[in-house]
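Database export, one record per block. Field names are fixed; values are copied verbatim from the stored entry.
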Amino acid sequence: MNSDKIHIILTGESGGSRTLLLDRRTLRRATFSLISLFAFLFAGTISGCYHWQEKSSLEQKLAEVEQTSRMRQDQLLDELCESQKELRRIRLQKLRVIDQYESKLARLRKETEQIYSGDIHKRAKLIKALMEEVGIRFDFEEDPSHSGGLYIEANGNGEGTVMDEADRFVCFLQKLPLGRPVKGKISSLYGRRRDPLNHRKAFHAGLDFRGRRGDKVHVTGSGIVKRSGYQRGFGNCIVIDHGNGYETLYAHLSKRLVHKGDRVARDQVIGLVGSTGRSTGSHLHYEVHYRNKSVDPLKFLRIAKLLASKK
């Protein structure tokens, strides 16, 4: 019998039989093909289940991301609405402040016009009220031990006294440091701030004005040059004595145009903007002192436009 052949005998109920003759190689190939087919189908089933699970997981993550995105979008919309409300509130507040300032400025203009055109009995009171409005002190110190002149009997109706007092106010205003020393914008205010060099908290005793090197620096009131030289920290600086306890300081200058003892008039050019001393860039540092104590120069800038309109 040939060993390469396999005989399969099939019998039926009637007693008949049938013999199948199969080649061993063919049978092995068929068996291997079936096993391979089942293995491929099994691997495909496992891979399909894995990919289906991955797809479900990705769909779930995508749904979570979309939900988070919608929630974040709603949150941003709410924040935007709140920001718009806050912006409208700030704008309304700003408009109210501007209205108050314009009303106050109009009243000051009216009082200034009365100062120049009103009768002499109201002149002194209006000037004094104008200075008190911006918080400026007015002190005249009379010293009889250093006085003199002809004796003129006072007028009984007090007209001469009122006129003399008004003229003294006008003289005081001419010396008072009012207005801006340079045309540049303010870059640092008076008071507490973070130091621009070491970034530590510090006190700023004046105002800083932006400017280009060589811009003209104007004195803000008539007076006498008390100091003109180089000072550590301030660099080239000038100090003007305006009398009645008021002094102004102009620092970081590139050039000084006046000397100690010189008399200067309001708006006279006394120096040029620079960056000498302890400075981060070209600017003017401006201070106002009253009786050796620094005061906020902003109060003196408030009526600069009023005076400028009458020049």
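Remark 1: Confidence is low (pLDDT under 50) at residues 146-152, 156-163.
Remark 2: DSSP finds five helices and 14 strands in the chain.
End of record.
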